[in-house]
Amino acid sequence: MSVKQISVxxxxxxxxxxxxxxxxxxxxINIRALSIADTQDFGILRIIxxxxxxxxxxxxxxxxxxxxxxxxxxxxADKPGSMATILEVLADAHVIVEYTYAFLAPDGHxxxxxxxDDNAVASAALxxxxxxxxxxxxxx
Amino acid sequence: MTEKxxxxxxxxxxxxxxxxxxxxxxxxxQVKRVYENVKYYRDLMDAKGVTPDDIKSIDDLHKLPFLTxxxxxxxxxxxxxxxxxxxxxxxxxxxxTTGRRVVAYYTQHDIDLWEDCCARALTAAGATNExxxxxxxxxxxxxxxxxxxxxxxxxxxxxLPMSSGSTDRQxxxxxxxHSTVLCCTPSYAAYIGETLKEMGISPDSLDLKAGIxxxxxxxxxxxxxxxxxxxxxxxxIYGLTETTGPGVAFECEAQKGMHINEDHFYAEIIDxxxxxxxxxxxxxxxxxxxxxxxxxxxxxxxxxxxxxxxxAECSCGRTLIKxxxxxxxxxxxxxxxxxxxxxxxxxxxLIKEGYSPNYLIEVDRVKNNDTLDVYVELNPEQFxxxxxxxxxxxxxxAEAIKTMLGINxxxxxxxxKTIQRSEGKAVRVIDKRKLHD
Lengths: 140, 437
Description:
CATH class of the largest domain in chain B: Alpha Beta
CATH architecture of the largest domain in chain A: 2-Layer Sandwich
Number of strands of chain B: 20
Strand order of the largest sheet of chain A: 2-3-1-4-6-5
Number of domains of chain B: 2
Helix content of chain A: 25-40%
Helix content of chain B: 25-40%
Distance between the termini of chain A: 15 Å
Order of helices and strands of chain A: EHEEHEHEEH
Oligomer: heterodimer
CATH architecture of the largest domain in chain B: 3-Layer(aba) Sandwich
Strand content of chain B: 15-25%
């Protein structure tokens, strides 16, 4: 099970992120989760929202470069060692984690997003360890 | 000042009328030879309705057709060869970039006259056979290293064929072998100066007294910096592979313009739009005619360099005509770290690598070193959600550009449609260097 994440190319310019998020808001899209990666020249805005397909086409229409990626979302317990356990399971399965970020779902649970090199292997390994991965709907 | 020294006094101080006579004699012979041996140029002359008989003196030169860089490209590799290949002993080539490569051929006679010209330049910078000439120009296809090397040996200097790079080793040789004359690009000279400072070595502790710097544009300000940081007097030298290499023109002690070795390279200034020859003192495009080269004898080659010629008397006693430092180009060529760069070359790489042809080149000079930044619009299909993938793309593109140009750019990927489109001719280059006073 995986979740669709939309990544948006953002130039390293004053106000670029504000313009982009305002554009998303003006189109009535609510961002559930977000992370930003940045380099000297550009940033990558990664967002999770309830209708990824529509959001992607709206952003493209607005002239943004986007890409949709399947990422894993797992619920994470609010106690020491939860994160380490998940990462150990992935490491044991030889899965490479490209990046990860956290957010709170409306049900009050914390979720981690994992971008990995092989979703199928990662999901299977997590399932084997009793760790559930979420669907898009689970997050809304 | 001690007695003025020249390498070939008779030529360098020849009265104007005699020089004109010499040039005329050489030109008449040269045009006959070229017409006979170089079909490419013969066709150009025929098309213009000019025969060798029409050229009776240097005053008839204007009747001949021009050669441009694109002729050199069309005629590559042998089309402009002036003699049998068996008579040639060497080639040199320009910075070697697709579609623009120039291969020039030299007979032993050509090498000799080139070395004479470089020896004149070294002598004008104060060098004698007692000097240790440290050559930190690149050796190889580039004309810099071999050109000055030949001149230095001809003059009888102890010649150090250092080539460029390994600055620590350069400095060690300067210290251990007491280099007195340095030859390299001005930006490398500036870099050596900075390195000396960082290493805490005083220029006074070195034996350097003069430097001959060329192959790229530099300013008076840079001259002062280099003179101070190396404790020397810095001289400019001009040349291009097409006509021979460094030594086409050189600066003397007056440091005001470069004397053209006009017994071998006849200079004209033309209006780049109309091709009309302009009177002395006018600013225009510099055109060279090889009066006696055999291997690659170019007649009326348009350099695209904009400058001014002057016969005004020089305090050094040389009567050779002087050219100003080039003040710009009549095409879009950039000289970056001594390498000729055309924006179209970068465009070729971008298209080949699957990028949009919307780009911006920014050239600057930071601490006397040229920097090249290339801004490229990212195509949607090239986008990735990971920074690593995009960084790899930037590096790969920089590598491809480096392979094409021979110099390292910094590539910046930018969002689509962010590079300004202009009506008509697009602005592709921002040159922030202030090279022309």
